[in-house]
Write a structure and sequence with these properties.
12 strands; 3 domains; 528 residues; 5-stranded antiparallel β-sheet; 5-stranded mixed β-sheet; Beta-Lactamase; Helix Hairpins; Heat Shock Protein 90
Length: 528
């Protein structure tokens, strides 16, 4: 059956739309004809009954006049022929013995006339009666009235109603046939128009599937198909941008993989064949280690992005000390700060800290800033410059928050590395922790190249990298996308503020553990 339908072309949308349209039209006209037939039949019958009644009353009046003036039967017959209209109709004047006089054009034998009159069950009351009688000859309207003054039954047999109704019915079927023919033509044109538009979209979608995103689907209609065409065109634009971004991403990943691998291979080979003296091997091994860490970060980012896309990326919230995490993280990243020639300044406010400057964290990552935190109680200080990291310290305040410490450290590493990567040498990266009663907020601000508002809107997209000046600093464009996903999983919103030439600022907040700052202060007292 399906093969036959395919051969006949019935599996196409054009055929289906045309068949459905013609079926709807056919059913509509059929229902219309059935309903109109019943209504017209009823209306024509009622009007015919009224006409029959009026004519029968004129006939009765004529017969009463003829009886009072003693007309002969021939005179009555002649007068009745004048009264009876020239159509398929007969008037019967029946006496009490059953003998009747017929005037009219209905060619029926006497036996059939008697059968019709018998079936009509004519009564002896003086009231007008009219009914429809159907026999082998057709349908008849039988109207009758008994006239007591002359002791006669006056009966009218008429087929005019049936004849008029058949004429109307034939004209109605003719009109329906013409309407169906015209509707079929318009249905064919409409189906061809709609399927042409759908075929145009199908061909456009196939072009998009093959990677040709430069030829849009042309359909300017404001209806649903026009809006679908617009959506497909917008999808093509987005896919084209994504495809270009993917190519750039692959190029960046290839470069980011090739560069450290080439360095690692070259240094290891040089160490093994003795090109690098033994006393300098440690230095080049450290460089090799840095390149290995860079590769590990890239691979981890790619794995995290793969987990995000497959829906397998999750977080495991637990209570941890955010202040301690930040301190240890910056301590580990001091060599990175020195490598980029960038300083850092750590400051913040902790509600639970006692003293004249409650909870103040401050410090300038400059030369010699690591002598100790004696200037301000609970101060941290650090630097990205040579020999300035020994004095890194932390005050007694704790900031216990709820979250996945590993994932949130990944967030902070990405933000700090971005800040360093896009900051000029000698500038400062500011890390601020603002611990309030209900939440703790961390801000990373740099003095780098900044971003435009359009770039700020798109930095969370996968593989997106801003202008060439920013792209030339490395990276794959997925770090901030992972950052946003991690914070979304924590129910935290990350905010960014940026101005070209004046740097960028990234902030996010975490929920503090139950009990807030009071619980953390009590924990500190218990440790003391």
């Amino acid at each position: 059956m399906s093969r036959l339908a395919a051969r006949l072309g019935l599996n196409t949308i054009f055929a289906k739309v045309l068949i459905i349209s013609l079926s709807i039209l056919g059913v509509t006209f059929l229902v219309f004809n059935l309903v109109s037939t019943q209504l017209v039949r009823r209306d024509m019958f009622d009007r015919q009954q009224g006409m029959e009644g009026a004519e029968l009353r004129r006939t009765v009046k004529l017969l009463e006049t003829a009886a009072s003036e003693r007309w002969t039967e021939s005179m009555v017959s002649t007068a009745l022929k004048v009264v009876v209209p020239p159509q398929m109709k007969s008037i019967l004047v029946i006496d009490s013995t059953g003998r009747y006089m017929q005037v009219g054009d209905v060619p029926l034998p006497a036996s059939e006339i008697k059968s019709i009159i018998s079936e009509a069950n004519i009564g002896s009351s003086g009231q007008f009666r009219s009914q429809m009688i159907e026999n082998e000859s057709g349908k008849w309207i039988v109207s009758s009235q008994y006239v007591p003054s002359i002791d006669r039954y006056v009966v009218s047999l008429s087929t005019g109603f049936q004849r008029d109704f058949r004429r109307w019915q034939n004209l109605s079927w003719l009109a329906i046939a013409v309407a169906l023919a015209v509707s079929a033509v318009f249905s064919w044109l409409f189906s061809r128009y709609m399927t042409t538009r759908i075929r145009r979209m199908s061909l456009g979608a196939e072009r998009f599937a093959k990677g040709d995103f430069d030829t849009p689907i042309r359909d300017a209609s404001p209806d649903e198909l026009g809006r679908l065409a617009g959506s497909l065109n917008r999808m093509a634009v987005d896919l084209g941008a994504l495809e270009q971004t993917r190519r750039d991403f692959l190029a960046n990943v290839s470069h980011d993989l090739r560069s450290p691998l080439t360095s690692i291979h070259g240094y290891v080979e040089a160490i093994l064949d003795g090109t690098i003296p033994g006393e300098k091997a440690d230095r080049y091994l450290r460089i090799t280690q840095e390149q290995t860490v860079r590769l590990m970060k890239l691979v981890n980012d790619l794995l995290d992005m793969s987990k995000i896309e497959s829906g397998q990326f999750d977080v495991q919230p637990a209570e941890f000390d955010l202040a301690e995490t930040v301190r240890l993280l910056l301590a580990r990243m001091e060599s990175t700060f020195r490598h980029h020639g960038v300083r850092y300044e750590i400051k913040g406010r902790v509600d639970s800290e006692p003293g004249p400057a409650p909870g103040a964290w401050s410090g300038m990552g400059d030369e010699g800033a690591g002598d100790g935190p004696g200037q301000t109680q609970g101060a941290w200080s650090g630097t990205g410059n040579e020999g300035a990291g020994d004095g890194l310290a932390v005050g007694s305040g704790k900031v216990i928050v709820v979250g996945d410490a590993h994932r949130l450290e990944q967030v902070m590493v990405n933000l700090i590395q971005n800040a360093m990567a896009f900051s000029p040498q000698g500038s400062t990266v500011y890390v601020t922790l603002d611990a309030q009663e209900e939440q703790a907020c961390l801000t990373v601000r740099d003095e780098g190249i900044g971003m435009s508002p359009e770039e700020t809107e798109r930095i969370w997209e996968r593989f997106y990298k801003t202008d060439e000046a920013r792209s030339g600093r490395g990276g794959t464009g997925i770090g901030l996308s992972i950052v946003k996903h991690i914070l979304d999983a924590h129910g935290s919103r990350i905010a960014v503020r940026s101005e070209q030439g004046r740097g960028s600022s990234f902030s996010f907040c975490l929920q503090r553990a139950a009990g807030g700052a009071g619980a953390e202060a009590a924990a500190d007292e218990q440790q003391d």
